[in-house]
Amino acid sequence: MYSEGSSHYTNTISALKKIREFDYLSSEISHFDWKPLQQILFNRRKIDSSFLKQVSDTFQISVDSLLDDKIDFKALEARMCQETFTLPEKYTLCPNSKIKTIQQILNYISPSVNKSHLMKSLQIPFSTLTETNAPVNCLLVHDLFKLIYRKTLNHSIFIELGVNSVISRLDSDFIRMLRDTGSIESSYIYMIENLTSIIEKNSHYKIHSNDGQTLIVHSSDNTETKEQLKIKSVATHEGCYYRLGFFTAFPAIFGLPLAKVTKNKCILKGDSFCSFEIDISMYSKQTLKIVSLHPNHAARTAI
Q1: Which residue range(s) make up the domain with 174?
Q2: Domain tally for the chain?
Q3: Rounded to whole angstroms, how far apart are CA atoms 158 and 160?
Q4: Same domain, 73 and 94
Q5: Which residue from 243, 250, 239, 255 is spatially nearest to 288, judged by alpha carbons?
Q6: What's the predicted TM-score (pTM) here?
Q7: Which of 24, 157, 186, 230 could form a disulfide with 181 if both were Cys (CB 3.0 to 4.6 A apart)?
Q8: Residues 54-73: pLDDT tens digits?
Q9: Which of 25, 46, 80 is the last residue of a domain?
Q10: How far is CA 21 from the centre of its chain?
């Protein structure tokens, strides 16, 4: 541990002062020497926690990011220049997702989990949330989910997030098209057949079987995504719970109770695909009529 008055402590304090006094708004930022901050990172395990807090507050990054040595200096430099949309490079490779998904997740979990802390940990500037269609990759979602689980130690929150991902899209063109199919079974079929092209491109989805009572859906990794991001699998435990909630929520677009969905196979357990079994038997004999669930659109419900 650095002790106050020691040469190491004095040198590190001087480094922080040099960083603080630098005019980040000037054009000289491109020539700024980040070695003082890198020196702090190198010695981070020996530095007093209160001092690390000073460093994290200065740069609007989390103490966890400092301790884990997960600072993207290029993104940090751009943010200090107040560029509107700058993310760590690892989140911009093979971008098959959108920042809007991150926005929806952060909005749902607040205030139970500190949104500001999560964004600092991931080096996401608040300004990025205004760029709702900006592309990001699944690694950002994965890392966000890991942080949420670390804070909550609760996997059911990801089922809730999956349900909310449907509910929050009730005004979207995709959900309107699903309503126009006229039945729960047809809406599931249309959704699954178009899921990869419209919403989620990191995995492939297909209907394995459908007997009118039960739909069995298989999902597998997008090989291109895995290879470009150099990851073992696109699937994560938190992501599987999220998809479970996503499939559960679709009857809600008709104003009906949530579906019963079970997962029987999983890539993370060594299977070549994940398998979701969706029970649609309770909806098969229900007649649908138009009712108003939202001032901006009509939805259908059972009678």
Answers
A1: 170-302
A2: 3
A3: 5
A4: no
A5: 255
A6: 0.77
A7: 186
A8: 777 767 777 777 777 777 77
A9: 80
A10: 35
